[in-house]
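2024-03-11 09:14:02 INFO worker-7 job=invfold-0412 stage=load source=structure_tokens
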């Protein structure tokens, strides 16, 4: 059974993410954790947020870099994950 993480969860909601906190700016790592917890039950938004930060995939003042989403998915085992540029495919 999958989990449904909340950005404002008391375990990480007030923790720093990109100069703000997970409650306000942690949609990227929270969404990633919602997916990846199905591969590894220990993954939380803190896990994915830390990985994104350590790999330079957070844009100061803007949040998670778009490339960080698919790179994080690949890192944790979603090998078919890749970036799609929706604007250029329309």
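2024-03-11 09:14:09 INFO worker-7 stage=emit residues=90
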């Amino acid at each position: 059974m999958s989990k449904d993480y909340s950005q404002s969860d008391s375990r990480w909601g007030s923790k720093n993410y990109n100069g703000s906190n997970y409650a306000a700016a942690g949609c990227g790592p929270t969404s990633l954790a919602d997916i990846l917890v199905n591969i590894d039950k220990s993954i939380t938004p803190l896990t994915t947020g830390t990985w994104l930060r350590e790999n330079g995939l957070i844009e100061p003042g803007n949040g998670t870099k778009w490339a960080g989403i698919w790179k994080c998915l690949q890192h944790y085992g979603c090998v078919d994950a890749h970036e799609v540029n929706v604007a250029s495919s329309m």
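2024-03-11 09:14:09 INFO worker-7 stage=report msg="The chain has a mean pLDDT of 88."
2024-03-11 09:14:10 INFO worker-7 job finished
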